[in-house]
Write a structure and sequence with these properties.
The chain has a single domain (19-186), classed as Ferritin, core subunit, four-helix bundle (Ferritin, Up-down Bundle). Helices cover 64% and strands 0% of the residues. The protein has helices at residues 10-17, 22-48, 52-82, 91-96, 112-137, 142-167. Helix 3 (52-82) packs antiparallel against helix 6 and helix 5 (112-137) runs antiparallel to helix 6. It binds fe (ii) ion (FE2) (2 copies). Residues 36, 68-69, 72, 126, 155 line the site of one fe (ii) ion (FE2).
Length: 193
């Protein structure tokens, strides 16, 4: 049985009382979800084009970042619906809102340096995106903040991996134990196992 159409959602009311612009937050989360989903797709192509002896060492790093982008997409979904939002009906609308066209394969698809530069740019954009959500929710919406800060932690790791590969700037990272480990966001993307 479905009751009245507009229930009072205490989980949203408290956020408004705390000073959150809920519509703006939903918009931010849906856009960020589209970036993560689209980046996951483009990283699939970039990883596949890491060929030759040089490419062999790079593809594992891109694979780790790629599977964590899928985790970031998954981490957004439940919260978007809890807040009263939804994902676009048309998948092409969803992909378009990401602004990720820059992640398409370079003119020479197997140019490893160009691939790494694209990966770095994607991670740096993601850091800005998730930092924005952290700023919007800090001290006001602990649930969304927890998700955003955990995604941000992984994006910062990803940036450091690609900085190391491109500039020999040590990242201090140990390789993931397995691709898809997602040490910070695993609890937000349990559907992935
Ligand atoms: Fe991501
Ligand atoms: Fe990332």
């Amino acid at each position: 049985m479905v009751m009245g159409r507009d229930p009072n959602v205490v989980g949203i009311e408290v956020l408004k009382k705390n000073g959150i612009d809920v519509d703006k937050l939903i918009k931010e989360l849906v856009t960020n979800a589209s970036v993560e989903f689209t980046a996951y797709y483009y990283f699939t192509l970039l990883r596949a084009n890491c060929t030759g002896m040089e490419g062999e060492g790079i593809k594992g790093v891109i694979e780790d970042a790629r599977l964590e982008d899928l985790s970031h997409f998954e981490s957004c979904i439940e919260r978007i619906y809890q807040l009263g939002g939804s994902l676009p009906k048309d998948a092409t609308d969803f992909i378009k809102m990401s602004g990720c066209e820059f992640l398409q394969l370079p003119p020479n698809p197997t140019d490893i340096k160009a691939i790494l530069e694209k990966c770095l740019k994607a991670e740096q954009g993601a850091i800005v995106n998730w930092d924005r959500v952290c700023q919007m929710t800090s001290g006001k919406d602990p649930v969304t903040f927890d998700i955003a800060k955990d995604i941000l932690a992984e994006e910062i790791e990803h940036e450091s991996w690609f900085l190391e590969l491109l500039y020999a700037r040590p990242s201090g990272h140990m390789r993931r134990k397995y691709s898809g480990e997602r040490p910070h966001t695993q609890k937000h993307s349990r559907a992935l196992g």
